[in-house]
UniProtKB/TrEMBL annotation:
This is WxcM domain-containing protein. Signal peptide: none annotated. Pfam families: FdtA (PF05523). Gene3D superfamilies: Jelly Rolls.
Length: 137
C-alpha cells in the first residue's frame, strides 16, 4: 500500500509573469475530485492529520511553505518533505498520516475523492492497525 503513495510531478508552465501548475482528475491522479480543503495559519509546532481513511483517495500539495508528511500502512513507514507547489503526494486508502514541521505561512491543500464523511475515518491508531494488518502490505 505504501508503494502506491508516490509524489506526483505536476505540470509546470514557467513564465516570467509567474508559474502555473494544474491538476487534472484521472490524468495526474487516479480519482475524481469531489472536495478540496486546505490547512493554513498553522501555528509552529502543531501537528495535523493523525488519522487514516477507509476509502478516500487524496492528493496533498504544499501550496506555500513546507511541511513533513509521515505515512504508515501498518507494515512500513515513510516521511516525505513537501516544499514545492508542483509536487503532489498521492495518498491511497488505508494509510495513517501525520503532518508536522509546518513552516510559517505554509498552506496544505488536499484534493479528495469524496465528500467529508466521518464514518470513513480511523481516528484511533490501534483500530487502524488491527484492520490494516488483515490485508497484505
Ligand atoms: P480533522 O480531520 O481532525 O483535521 P486534520 O486531520 O486535517 O488535522 O478535521 C478537523 C475538523 O474539521 C473536524 O471536526 C472535521 C472537520 N472537517 C469537515 O467538516 N470537513 C472536511 O472536509 C474536513 C477535512 C474536516
Amino acid at each position: 500500500n505504501l508503494n502506491k503513495c508516490q509524489t506526483v510531478d505536476l505540470p509546470r508552465i514557467n513564465d516570467p509573469r509567474g508559474n502555473l501548475t494544474f491538476v487534472e482528475a484521472n490524468r495526474h491522479i487516479p480519482f475524481d475530485i469531489r472536495r478540496v480543503y486546505y490547512l493554513y495559519d498553522v501555528p509552529g509546532g502543531a501537528e495535523r492529520g493523525g488519522h487514516a481513511h477507509k476509502a478516500l483517495h487524496q492528493l496533498i500539495i504544499a501550496m506555500s511553505g513546507s511541511f513533513d508528511i509521515h505515512l504508515d500502512d501498518g507494515y512500513a513507514k515513510k516521511t516525505i518533505h513537501m516544499n514545492r507547489s508542483y509536487y503532489g503526494l498521492y495518498v491511497c486508502p488505508m494509510i495513517w498520516r501525520e503532518i508536522d514541521n509546518f513552516s510559517s505561512g505554509a498552506v496544505c491543500m488536499v484534493l479528495a475523492s469524496d465528500y467529508y464523511d466521518e464514518l470513513d475515518y480511523y481516528r484511533e491508531y490501534n483500530e487502524f492497525i488491527r484492520d490494516a494488518q488483515k490485508v497484505s502490505p
